[in-house]
Amino acid sequence: MEAVAFYIIAAIAVFGALLMITRRNPLAGAFSLVVSLIALAGIYAMLRAELIFILQILVYAGAIMVLVIFTIMLLNLREEELEEPPAGKIKTLIILAAVAFGCYGIIKVLSGAPDEVPRVPENFGSVEKVGELMLTSYLYPFEIISVVLLVAIVGVVLLAKKVI
Amino acid sequence: MITLDHYLYLSAILFFIGVFGVLFRRNLIVILMSIELMLNAVNLSFIAFSRYTASMDGHVFAFFVMAVAAAEAGIGLAILVMLFRNRRTVQADDLTLMRD
Amino acid sequence: MNLELLEGCTREMAENLIIIAKTLFVIAMAFGFLLVVIWFERKGSAFIQDRVGPNRAAILGVRLAGFIQNFADVTKLIMKEMFIPGEVNRIYFILAPFIGFTFILTSFAVIPFADNLRIGGFDIPMQVADLNVGVLYILAITSLNVYGIVLAGWSSNNKFSLLGGLRSTAQMISYEIPLGLSIVGIFMVFGSLHLNEIVRAQGELLFGFLPRWGIFVQPLGFIIFISAAYAEANRTPFDIPEGESEIVAGYHVEYSGMRFALFYMGEYIALVLSSALVVTLFFGGWQIPYLDTSDLIRHASVVLKVLLLGGAAMSLAAAIAFIGYAKRLKGTWGDIHDREGHVLTTFAVLALAVFLVVLFWLWNVEFPDWAARTIALISQVGMFLIKVLFFGWLFIWVRWTLPRFRYDQLMGLGWKALIPLSFINILISGLVILLVQR
Questions:
Q1: Mutate which of B10, B19, B38, B53 to disrupt the A interface (most A C-beta within 10 Å)?
Q2: Do A73 and C140 touch (CB under 8 A)?
């Protein structure tokens, strides 16, 4: 049952991502990416990551992608011609992919993560638990992230202003 | 039975679709979206590892990645809008001022 | 062994049946409110503008003050051709109305409409999905709602549609921020994201006499929330995405028939959702002031008698009013319409009789536990529906009273007033909570 759900959701995610890079129209690509991101949110829900599941929909699908789509509509981008990918690049990509898949195996062995799913408490991944972790062990990174966001806001306002 | 491998391979596949998009597409917005896809793939491995080691640190990392992705998307799109205002294009091939 | 297995099976089946029943109830509630709110819109606007409103459509002469008009409208929209213009992006054009409508309907899943029902060994939460992240789920789903509008605006391949879609996107992402920030204060006060727990916490008393409703502990948060909710539901004074006098109805110009109806219904269901959310977060949800669930269960027979007496009194008043109406109506139409007064009077008298009979029958009955709990449940659901209905009416009242904002005023209000105000609200709430806890 769980396996069937996983394969269906994974297939949707991969299919959406593939459509994203192959559509000629950027707006159609953006919509396919949204589908892929929502499917990923489903996988997070399967992994008991409640907060990240909600944030994935709220932040990625609901805010970032809306911003991207807004920009595409604002610039009124048209369809573009897709060119054939050059052979040299494809070769590099295949080598990179092989290396990366190998690395995944190594990481898996080194990390010692077990194959069977460990039992976790009822509130694993809930807003309270992750929030607690964020404001204790990860307090400094958390504060730094807020500074990063502030810098981004200031930067965007400066960039988008017509006359400085 | 879904093991950690399944999630990691899904993550790897998504990541490489993203890499493919960055390498072969010339539209800057599509490149930006491919980068978002790659960040998402990384998030997926964080969450999967987190579940299979029964610790929630991965969730915190994923949260940070999302915050950085939001900042990156905001800045990137602002730069794109400025580019379009000045050069009337968002194709990476047309932006060769620094090279010529 | 076998018996236990069987028991487990029936238990599981019962749980599934309960979930299906709750889902059906919520969908029925949403559509019922949809009809009532559209009727409110028609008759309310007519009342405010001092005209008559729809008064012709009738079933066998019964018009129900224009309510039958809804069914005539639905019939018309179903019969109409669903036209697809040339040069549109067909897949997205057909998909767009469904996306918006589906997302809105799914967000009803976490709204609680009564306290948990403990019956026969079950502890049934009275919401379809008992999520811990309740409010965040609604925010997430409503943020996806933009896609329906954007997709419609873009795929129609029409300048007005595109403009409407653009405006709507800008407005929705701007107002999502104050919408989310304004309820942070509520989370801080009640210490939970779970909607049913928030409602339960609102049953306590503040200073011993005031119900601890969201509006009394978060007045500023309420003002910000309701403004942002009006903007999110694309209602006047924030209905710029479909300003019919500027951009001929915006993103759904090219739609007709049932596809248009989906947008139209989606808008009103969003209105109902907003009022349900306002009620849940700020007006105590299903809480009846000064009466919590245990009180209701303990005094179930009194509650039932009061409800029945109220129903009887209302049907008596209605019957008297309808008799007068029937007299005035006599001979004005000269056809089947004249009968309406008599039909309505008959129904009112029948209702009165039913109420009285039930009242006498149940006067001395001792209620078992399950019946007492069911009565408490019904009174709470009724309270919730009445509150939601009032806020639905408030939406319509505001729409026909206030003029539309200009675009820059809208953006200015969102970014320069509501967002800073909601930050101040969070700061003050934090300080007060800290002082109270000391």
A1: B10
A2: no
